[in-house]
Design goal:
By secondary structure, the chain is an alpha/beta fold. It is built from 16 helices and 13 strands. The mean pLDDT is 94.
């Protein structure tokens, strides 16, 4: 069997590493080789995706690199569609395997469907119910053309059922939980990031902000920055800053409001999860970071109006604050007064999602 895996961003590579390991385990145990061909569209340039990234995290390097980045949604998706279609015709895979909700996911889904190749979608069924988000459009389209829909939670299964999609739907758990279990101790053991930044465990807030709905809206960005600046007066704040966000902050003349905030360059994956585990509280607009906070038992404040990871909110581990300064500060005060909430639920499976995905594809 041959599987063609389409990836476009660092988080997708990290999730796919868990499934690649499960494929290797299957091959070693059964002597029935599954051939995985990895395609990197190039969608997100990430300076941290160097040779060290692949070596440290034991992630297979891509077999094909399309080098498509820095374009608008239409141009980027169109070129990816063309490139992936050519590779599918050349490689003749039995399955095209996709992750998440990027333009790479959309292009892979469309290319495979039009060539009548079965599509497997990991993280199927997630919904923000906000059609202004390009990610929402991408994930809905990918789900509609998928043969196998691998859901991370029961809520994702219910979302698909509400849309009339019930065939080929499997709640396998969250592959990100697999990843967190695999890397958490390695990060604590190997990284020196706390020393490098001069922060102490449980004595700082970790902040990430990158979503276009926040960074491209001057009012939302200002609300977030004002809140971060205020928090930094009472608790050390670490802010790894993507170059694009940095540029938008400078253009909006908001950088002066971050006095006292420790601004870091984009971090490696191990550095990031070491900081997540050590933080007092995490403020983020990232879906992945919300879940990692939950996995590591760190209180989270989500600077968005909605989240796909509703389980984290329902159990009290995550608070939705939007982007207003007052709402973020209110959520922060609540967290500091009440501390972490010990979840009484385990909605993301047992940490064996990758093995379940491989077994179901093979069957």
């Amino acid at each position: 069997m041959k599987i063609l895996t389409v990836l476009g961003a660092r988080p997708q590579f990290i999730k796919a590493a868990a499934v690649s390991r499960a494929i290797r385990r299957h091959n070693e145990a059964n002597g029935e080789p599954v051939r995985e061909v990895i395609v990197h569209t190039g969608q997100h340039f990430d300076a941290n995706m160097s040779d060290v990234f692949f070596e440290q995290l034991e992630i297979p390097r891509p077999d094909h690199h399309l080098g498509i980045a820095g374009l608008g949604h239409g141009a980027m998706t169109g070129r990816m569609l063309e490139g992936i279609e050519t590779l599918i015709q050349a490689e003749k895979p039995d399955w095209v395997l996709l992750y998440g909700d990027t333009n790479s996911t959309l292009a892979g889904a469309l290319a495979a469907a039009k060539l009548h190749v079965r599509v497997a979608h990991v993280e199927a069924g997630l919904r923000s119910f906000n059609m202004r988000m390009p990610e929402e459009v991408n994930r809905i389209v990918a789900d509609r053309v998928s043969t196998a829909l691998f859901c991370p939670t029961e809520a994702a299964v219910e979302n698909l059922r509400a849309e009339g999609v019930t065939t080929g739907v499997h709640n396998v758990g969250d592959v990100m939980f697999d990843v967190s279990l695999f890397y958490r101790e390695r990060a604590r053991r190997e990284t020196k990031i706390l020393t490098q930044l001069g922060v102490e465990e449980r004595r700082f807030a970790l902040v990430t902000c990158h979503r276009a709905e926040n960074t491209d809206d001057p009012d939302r960005l200002a609300g977030i920055v004002n809140a971060i600046g205020t928090i930094a007066r009472s608790l050390r704040v670490v802010l790894p800053l993507h170059p694009r966000t940095r540029k938008l902050l400078e253009a909006a003349r908001l950088t002066d409001r971050l006095d006292g905030v420790t601004i870091a360059e984009p971090l490696s994956y191990l550095d990031m999860i070491a900081l997540e585990q050590a933080a007092t509280v995490i403020l983020t607009d990232s879906g992945g970071v919300q879940k990692e906070a939950f996995f590591y038992g760190v209180p989270c404040i989500t600077m968005r109006d909605e989240t796909e990871w509703v389980e984290t909110v329902e159990c009290g581990a995550n608070r939705l604050a939007g982007a207003s300064t007052d709402a973020i500060l209110s959520a922060f005060d609540h967290v500091m007064a009440n501390g972490a909430v010990a979840p009484t639920v385990a909605p993301y499976g047992s940490g064996r999602a990758a093995d379940d995905i491989v077994a179901r594809i093979l069957s």
